[in-house]
Amino acid sequence: MSLALFAGAWLAVAAWATLRGRRRAAAGARIIEEHARFAALLESGPAVPLLIDGDGTLAGSDRLAGMLGLDRLPGLVAELFGAEAPFAPEDADAIRGQIADAASGAPFSVIARAAQAPRVWRIDGASAPPAFGSRAVLLWFTDVTEAEDRAAALGHRLQRRSEALEALSRLIEAAPFPIWHRGPDLSLTMVNGAYVAAVEAEDADAVVREGIELVDEPPRDLDGAFQAPSDRFVPATIAGARRMMRVVEVPLGNHGRAGYAIDVEDQEQARAELLRFERAQRDMLDRLSAGVAQFGRDRGLIFFNQPFARMFGLPADFLADRPEFDRLIDQMREAGQLPEVRDYPEWKAERRQWFTSGPGADEEDWLLAGSRHVRVVAQPLPDGGLLLIFEDRTEQIQLASARDTLLRVRSATFDNLFEAVAVFASDGRLSLWNSRFRDLWGFEEEQLAAHPRVDALTPHLAGRLKRANHAGLVRELVRSATLERKQRTGRVGLVDGREFEFAAVPLPDGNALFIMLDITDSRKVEAALRERTAALEEADRLKTAFVSNMSYELRTPLTSIGGFAEMLDGGYAGPLSDTARDYVAAILDSVGRLGALIDNVLDLTQSETGALLLAEDEIELAGLCDDVAAAEREAAARKSIDLAVEVDASAGIVTGDTRRLAQAIGNVLANAIAYVDEGGRVLLRAEGDRKAARIIVSDNGRGISAADQQRVFDRFHRTAEVRGENAPAIGLGLPLAKQFVEAHGGTIELQSEPGQGTTVTISLPRTADQQAAHPARGSRR
Description:
single chain, alpha+beta, Beta-Lactamase, 6 domains, 6-stranded mixed beta sheet, kinase, phosphorelay sensor kinase activity
């Protein structure tokens, strides 16, 4: 029984032991499983532990060795953080110091960098739990390489943004226009210096504190509309002046709004000025004779002037429709206002390139129908447009052609002149010459082609002149014509005996024309004429002396004939029969007429030789005219001529030879009576002024032809129209009257038209005393 009890007890103990063992096995399994879970959790964590015992031994996993780039962990802390450590030397030294401090209870956290590879670890250290012994240290290694890279990048970005913010702040402060910031309540929180200067405040703090607004209208928020960007033009008073400002404000979300203001007053004025300039320019272009067309950047016509429309015959409504460039070209082609080209599409494509051809202008000439020449200038505009200028050069080209023809004619004429001609420029250089000039001076064409100065030609000219110093005269004449603009002439002789007259004439263009004329033959003719003139003058002198001597010689026998005839007529030779008495009367009449003729011839010859003596009588012209008229009334009565005398009181008195003046007036009056038909009228009128007296004899006779008017005062000339049985055979009346009047210092003039009569005017001067005493009374008949 006891055995049974023992066995039962043993069985019970065995069962209990078995049960307890199972429980402990289950607990151990659970602990192992929990350890495995924690080990896996530890392995998957970012930090890897390292236990350092108090004696410096290390306990760690292979994961830590792999993290540090080691095959295995060293056994001692001195080896891990020694000379061969995977850490940078300065970091290894610092970690050893931190471990020593951590053993005393001071936790630490350091950043360690690998010695070779670009890796970074954070090492957190502290005393190990008591279970690991005293002075044990537990280190946690975390690989923060990527975090450090990100932190460095973020730090760099932060630095750049800080620098940008600083630069932006400086830029805002240095900005020449006002800039501000408003808070969410739209009150000012920040302004720059330009804002302060614009509102004339003390500083930015005063502006913010007092809420000084730049523009006249205050900020407002109309149901959140102010949350949108705004751009408006408002007036503002800037530094005491009223200006137009462009105000721009931009919302910054919950941080308020930022804004700036730009003074656009000058810009607006410039825009207005630009508009005025464009209008003035277009008005000016519309007044040009050249056609102008302007295209915008869309290649549409935006402007044309009236000459353009007229030049190409384009309808105004078509041009007002702003046609595109290609369309305008097509319309001009349809109107026949383009040059004829073989490939029109290619030609138009080339002209389309005018819009993009660069800053320079393209020029070309168009030959249109009807021989019209048009010069085209295509100027690309900076805004992408195009300016076309059309100049009708038809007339200009025609004039140029005519000018070229004239130049060729002038050159041919110039080169074939008999005169030697040269043109010198304003600087004294020879610019033009003809072949006569070259041959005259013996120049080679190559010499003249170099356009030498007149100074360089002077030595050559001196060798061809009879007097070498005359070469300097040529130089001086050219200088005077080019510089002083004076015309001068001269005469030179060449060594070959020829003589030339030359002249230097200033031309309108500043040049000088030098011309030489060969006067050798004319000088010979002149010498011959001088000799002949001298001979004729001598012959005339001899003739005059002969006539004078003959007149004196004729007077002596004529006086004897007259004396004896008067004695016969007086009965000194006895009574005469009636027939004899008639003969004696005829002899006496012929003697009187011949004596008067001889006296006239003597007076005429004495007047020519200056031997005519004149008395100085105070002559009352009224009485003189009456006496002369009375002497001619019988001759007028024989032809039933009405002889009228009109003497004005202004005729007055003159000084002269009464007989000679009476003879001169009588000759003129007798000549008028001789040339008037029967029943005509002759008027003798005397008048005058303070300086001279005038005796006028006019008639209504047949008049004198223009050819005879030039010779009526010539000696011994008589017109063919004279009639009358008592008219002398030779005409000495008017020549003698002319010489008598001119001997008194007067003049005699004749005016006549065939069929209208003749008027002869004698003008006699007065002395100073007569001028002072000249009366001003009416006329008498």
